[in-house]
Amino acid sequence: MQYKYHNIIFDLDGTLINSGPGIIHAVQYALKKYGINETDMTVLKSFVGPPLNQQFINCYNFSHEQSLEAVKYFREYYTDKGILENEVYEQIPKLLKTLAENGLKLLIASSKPEKFVKNILSQHDLLKYFAFAGGSLLDGSRINKDDVLAYVLKQMQITDLNDCIMVGDRKYDVIGAKKFNLKCVGVTYGYGNLEELKDINADFIIDKPLELLSIIKSVPHVKRVACTSL
Do β-strands 7-10 and 105-113 pair in parallel, antiparallel, or remain unpaired? Predict the structure, then answer.
C-alpha cells in the first residue's frame, strides 16, 4: 500500500479522544474558586483544544497571574478525576492499528501536559501505536500548538516536512501546522466544526476517522472528503 505521507501527527483532545467531560468538569471546579458557576456548555466546550490559561483570559478576562492560578485549580480536579472522564472516538483504534501495521510513524502534538497525554493513551491501550507523544510542560510552557509541533519534529529529527501531515479538530491545529507549511486535516467529529475549519482553510476536512486513509494514500482534488465506502 502506497502512502503520500509517512509521518502522521495527531492532536489528542477532540481528535483521538473525547476528553470533553473531564476538561469541562475541571474548568467548572476551577471557576468555582472565583465564585463563578458556569453552566453555558458553549463556553465550557471552548476550553477543549486551546491552551487553558489563554482561554481563562479570553472568556473571563482573567489577568495572566489569575489564569495561571486557575490552571492549578483545574489540575486539582483533572489529575485524579478528570483524566479518567474520557472515551476513544469510534474507528480510532482501527485507524491507528491500520496505519501502524503499514509502517507509518504516528506522533502526538497536544497542548495537554505530556504526562497526561501518555496517561490517557495508556488507559485505552493506544500508546503502543505512537513513536512519540509530545505535549506541553506542567510549568505552563510549550503550550501553543506550533511550539509543541517544533518540539515533536525536533525530537523525532524530522526534516522532510512534505512527508508529514497534521490531524486535528480545532483552528489551533491548522494554525500550528501552517507555521511549518504542513498539510492539515480537520475533523468535524471533535470540538471544532465545519465552519471553523473552512474559515481557517484546513487543507482537508473529514467527518469520520477512517476517512483519513483516503487522504494519506493519495492527494485528493477536493478539500472535503466523504468516504462512505469505508
Answer: parallel
